[in-house]
């Protein structure tokens, strides 16, 4: 029994020293040959498409900007960073160039993570066929349309959800071996659609809200920063104008602003998609709904009596 007791004590100790990351930052890869010329995908596997020279420059600039952000413009000496990266060539190259802005002592570690890879569009892509397929996707809906031999955004959502569960276990069990006296920052270098799916899952956005989101530009970032009350928000770092450009609705932006100061676990009653988007005119309390409920039941009773009478007449 003794080893079990020690194991529980060790688990308790790990939980005590686990610290939430100050920031979780999503970064899209730099410009790739596929972004420049879609014909690239007809001869090069998607996972092997490289960055352009411009993409390499974008990644180096992003590294400098990220270093400035994490160090609070050089005023904070106590910070560290951990990277998660998609296994694709263009994301690995983006990480390599971003890494030039950091010293070894600042980087706790890096992990290649297959679950944050690009949406699978299906092996080699015939350009004319893909044009028709993407037109069909626009009519069908971006989230649920599954590419032939590939994935839908809903499929990406499932694997991103799995990744998030692992991410929280890494933090909770201190698998990142983070010193709690330092600010921890997580940088996830991935792809445009995968990043939008990540945000949709994290903030519990609906499929309809996802459909309105605009893609990230190459090497563009989305910074989720821990607010004063322990909730993550885009509004700590980003402006309302930026979020509007990304496709967030005024209600979504209002929720982000609320999260910036909300205490962890609080409920934003003003957020329409938490309840109001799924129901019609919910009463605030049981007493408020008594009259309408009784009236509804009475109407149903009358309809039932009328139906039964008609059945009896038919039998006669």
What does this structure look like?
With 316 residues, this protein is α/β, with parallel strands linked by helices. Helices cover 46% and strands 11% of the residues. A 6-stranded mixed sheet has the order 3-2-4-1-5-6. Strand 2, helix 4 and strand 3 form a beta-alpha-beta unit. It starts with a helix and ends with a helix. The N terminus is likely disordered.
Order of helices and strands: HEHHEHEHHEHHEEHHH
Percent helix, as a range, is: 40-55%
Uncertain ranges: 1-9, 11-16
Oligomeric form: single chain
* Contiguous helical run count: 11
Based on secondary structure, the structural category is alpha/beta
Roughly what fraction of the amino acids lie in strands?
A: 5-15%
Rounded to the nearest angstrom, the radius of gyration is 25 Å
Strand order of the largest sheet: 3-2-4-1-5-6
Mean pLDDT value:
87
Give the number of DSSP strands.
6
For the terminal residues, how far apart are their CA atoms?
A: 78 Å
Give the biggest sheet: 6 strands, mixed
Q: Given the C-alpha coordinates, what overall shape results?
A: globular
């Amino acid at each position: 029994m003794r080893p079990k007791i020690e194991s529980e004590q060790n688990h308790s100790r790990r939980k005590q020293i686990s610290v939430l990351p100050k920031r979780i930052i999503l970064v899209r890869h730099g410009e790739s040959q596929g972004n420049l010329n879609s014909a690239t995908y007809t001869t090069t596997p998607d996972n092997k498409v490289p960055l352009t020279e411009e993409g390499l420059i974008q990644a180096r600039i992003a590294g400098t900007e990220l270093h400035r952000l994490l160090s609070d413009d050089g005023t904070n000496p106590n910070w560290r960073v951990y990277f998660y990266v998609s296994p694709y060539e263009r994301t690995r190259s983006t990480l390599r160039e971003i890494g030039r802005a950091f010293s070894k002592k600042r980087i706790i570690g890096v992990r290649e993570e297959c679950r944050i890879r690009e949406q699978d569009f299906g092996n080699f892509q015939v350009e004319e066929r893909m044009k028709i397929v993407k037109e069909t996707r626009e009519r069908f809906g971006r989230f649920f349309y599954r590419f032939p031999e590939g994935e839908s955004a809903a499929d990406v959502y499932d694997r991103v959800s799995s990744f998030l569960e692992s991410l929280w276990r890494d933090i909770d069990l201190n698998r990142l071996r983070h010193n709690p006296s330092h600010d921890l920052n997580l940088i996830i270098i991935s792809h445009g659609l995968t990043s939008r799916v990540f945000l949709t899952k994290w903030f519990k956005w609906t499929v309809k809200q996802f459909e309105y989101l605009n893609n990230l530009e190459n090497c563009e970032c989305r910074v989720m920063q821990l607010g004063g009350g322990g909730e993550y928000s885009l509004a700590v770092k980003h402006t309302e104008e930026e979020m509007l450009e990304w496709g967030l609705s005024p209600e979504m932006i209002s929720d982000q602003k609320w999260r910036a100061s909300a205490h962890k676990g609080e409920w934003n009653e003003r957020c329409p998609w938490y309840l109001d988007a799924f129901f019609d005119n919910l009463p605030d309390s049981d007493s408020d709904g008594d009259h309408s409920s009784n009236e509804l039941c009475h109407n149903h009773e009358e309809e039932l009596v009328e139906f039964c009478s008609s059945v009896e007449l038919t039998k006669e």
